[in-house]
Design brief:
single chain, 339 residues, alpha/beta, Purple Acid Phosphatase, chain A, domain 2, seven-stranded mixed β-sheet, six-stranded mixed β-sheet, 8 helices, 15 strands, 25% helix, disordered N terminus
C-alpha cells in the first residue's frame, strides 16, 4: 500500500509543478495510429509542449486471432525515435480501441482479451502496482495538479465488457456501393457493472475542476452508421445521466472515426457537454463524404490530425480552448469556452 501512495504523490507533484509555473495545463491526444505508416505527427505534437499525452485507442493495428505477434508491433511503435522524444517530455495515459484490443469492432466475446490487456498496459506504461493491473478491463484514471488547479482524466474501456452489436450489409441506393451499418442493441451494455460502479465513484470522489472522460468511440454523434454509443441506447442514456448527476465540468474525448469534430449538447443539469473527436494520426478517409451530426460545432475535418485541450487557470474559473491540429501546425478548427 505504501508503494502505491508514493507513486501517486510523485505523479501529482510533477503535474502540479508544471501548472504552478505557467497557470495552464495542456493536453494532447489522438488515435488511429498505424505503426507501419509514416509517423509524422509526433514532431507536431512535441512542438505544442503538452503536459500529458492521451492515447484514445487504436494505438497500434494488430487484428490477430493469435496475439503472439503483437509485442513486436507495440515495440515498433514504442521505439519510434520521435515518439520516444514525446514521452520523455510529458506524462502518458490512455485506453484502447478495437484494433489494439485485437479484433475489428470487437466486444466482450473476444477470447484473448486478457493477453491483449497486459500488452496494452505495458505499452501505456502502467506501473506494476497500478490497480488497473488487478482487475478485468483496462479502465483507469489519473489526476494532475492540486487544489483549484486539478484535472482528472478517466479512461473508459469500451471493449472488454461490451455486448454484441450486429452489422448489416446493404447496397447504397445513390452510389450503388456495398456498405454496412451497425444495428442498435436495445438492451445491450457497454461498460459492465463493475466498470459502471467504478465510474460513479471516480466522478464522485474527486475535487478536480475539469474531468476529461476518454471514451474511445463517439458518445454524442448518432446519425452515422459506424460504431458509437448510440448503438447501445440504454448504455448511452445511463452514461449521460451519470455525467449529469455528478455535477462535474466534463469534456468527452473520442477517436475511432479517422476524422475530427466538436460536438456539443446540454446535460440534464443545465451544464454544457462538449465532445472532442480526434482520429487519424496516420491515416484518414480515402474519399470524403457528407456525414450529418446534429451536435457538431464547426466543420467536419477529414485530415490527419491530433487534438489539443488547453486549460487556462488564470481566472476564478478555468477557461478551455480546444484545437484540431494538423501538419505544419495548422489549426483546422477550434472552440473556446468556460464552464
Amino acid at each position: 500500500m505504501m508503494k502505491k501512495a508514493i507513486v501517486v504523490l510523485l505523479c501529482s507533484s510533477i503535474a502540479a509543478n508544471v501548472i504552478a509555473q505557467n497557470n495552464r495545463f495542456l493536453i494532447a491526444f489522438g488515435s488511429c495510429n498505424d505503426q507501419d505508416r509514416t509517423q509524422e505527427m509526433w514532431n507536431e505534437i512535441i512542438a505544442q509542449h503538452p503536459d500529458v499525452w492521451i492515447w484514445v485507442g487504436d494505438n497500434i493495428y494488430s487484428d490477430f486471432k493469435n496475439p503472439a505477434g503483437r509485442p513486436a508491433l507495440y515495440q515498433k511503435q514504442k521505439s519510434n525515435a520521435d515518439y520516444q522524444r514525446l514521452i520523455a517530455t510529458c506524462q502518458v495515459t490512455g485506453t484502447w480501441d478495437d484494433h489494439d484490443y485485437g479484433v475489428n469492432d470487437g466486444g466482450k466475446n473476444y477470447g484473448l482479451k486478457k493477453q491483449s490487456q497486459q500488452l496494452a498496459m505495458d505499452f501505456l506504461g502502467f506501473d506494476k502496482n497500478n490497480p488497473v493491473r488487478h482487475h478485468e478491463g483496462i479502465y483507469n484514471s489519473v489526476e494532475y495538479g492540486r487544489g483549484k488547479q486539478k484535472i482528472k482524466i478517466i479512461n473508459l474501456d469500451t471493449r472488454t465488457f461490451r455486448d454484441t452489436v450486429l452489422r448489416e450489409n446493404y447496397v447504397d441506393t445513390l452510389s450503388g456501393k456495398k456498405m454496412y451499418r451497425m444495428l442498435p442493441n436495445l438492451s445491450g451494455d457497454m461498460l459492465g457493472e463493475h466498470q459502471w460502479a467504478w465510474l460513479k465513484q471516480e466522478l464522485k470522489n474527486t475535487s478536480a475542476k475539469v474531468v476529461i472522460v476518454n471514451s474511445s468511440i463517439q458518445v454524442l454523434p448518432r446519425q452515422h452508421r459506424f460504431e458509437k454509443w448510440a448503438n447501445l441506447p440504454n448504455a448511452k442514456e445511463r452514461l449521460l445521466s451519470l455525467l449529469s448527476e455528478s455535477g462535474k465540468n466534463i469534456i468527452l474525448i473520442s477517436g475511432d472515426r479517422h476524422i475530427a469534430e466538436f460536438s456539443k449538447t446540454q446535460m440534464a443539469n443545465g451544464k454544457a457537454l462538449y465532445e472532442f473527436t480526434s482520429s487519424g494520426l496516420t491515416h484518414t478517409w480515402a474519399e470524403p463524404w457528407k456525414e450529418d451530426n446534429e451536435f457538431r460545432i464547426g466543420e467536419l475535418v477529414i485530415q490527419k490530425n491530433f487534438g489539443i485541450i488547453q486549460i487556462d487557470w488564470k481566472g476564478s474559473e478555468p477557461t478551455i480552448e480546444m484545437r484540431v491540429m494538423g501538419l505544419r501546425q495548422q489549426v483546422f478548427n477550434k472552440v473556446s469556452f468556460s464552464f
